[in-house]
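Shipment paperwork, digital attachment
Item: protein structure file
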Amino acid sequence: MLVIFNPTAGRRRTAHLWRVLDLLLENGVEVEVAETTHAGHAVGLARAAAMAGAPMVVAAGGDGTIAEVANGLIGGRTQLGVIPLGTANVLAREYRLPFGPRGIAHALAYKRTRPLWPGVAELEDGGAHVFVQMLGLGFDGAVVWGLKRGLKRVIGRGAYVWQSLWESVAYRFSPLTVEIDGETHEAASVVVSKGRLYGGPFLLAPEARPGEPGFWVALFERPGTLPALTAGAALPLGLLPHCPGVRLLPAREVRFGPQSPPAQADGDALRRHVRAVRSAARPISLIVGEAGPP
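Attachment content:
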């Protein structure tokens, strides 16, 4: 079993990882740990393992690390395991993955799987970026771009709240043109979601099915500070899908206009303009515990 781990996760999360690994080793599971050294490193490590015939690769980290590992596994048959060590852990919550060391070790050892169908963002330079939970453009992207990593390590999800308050005043809310399955829309900000949840345990797209192709697109149609703060207040209450100015639409393909707003995927800033979003050609087998998404 190859475990891909970002060593910048912090001392507490590293200790959590080693508790999981100790339990696996105690149960006779052979484990190899590969530490990443730079952004995108996990993609190459996962791809090399898959090409060598590894039956499973485990992402130890948050949604960004999981997405990188998924990028390396996409199109193959290697299973994806997860040790949730991130700030929000949206995918782990989406699939109701275990968080305790014993539960994680049990799930990885017994290998029960469910399909995870990633999304693929087509970029302006002809490249592609795989995402497993969500992709955001506009205000949503600006929050991630402006986030200070040091603050995120200290106060966790509170850093997103702080940055959202700042961006609600500082961001210009330039209009975005979005084409959803051939129909054109305008919005101040857009989130393309594979799953039901956003920002942690908070509901965004109740009808989303992450194990199937397609997406739900949240159009935030009203620009400005007050609508942004209203949406932010509605999120922890589970009311964002019903918030005034928020419209949810199902989609098979999403295309964006020539604007270049700040963008993020699975909590990581994207440095290139996103032209379109489509489903991956096939799903990945995600190792889960006793539960999974509804």
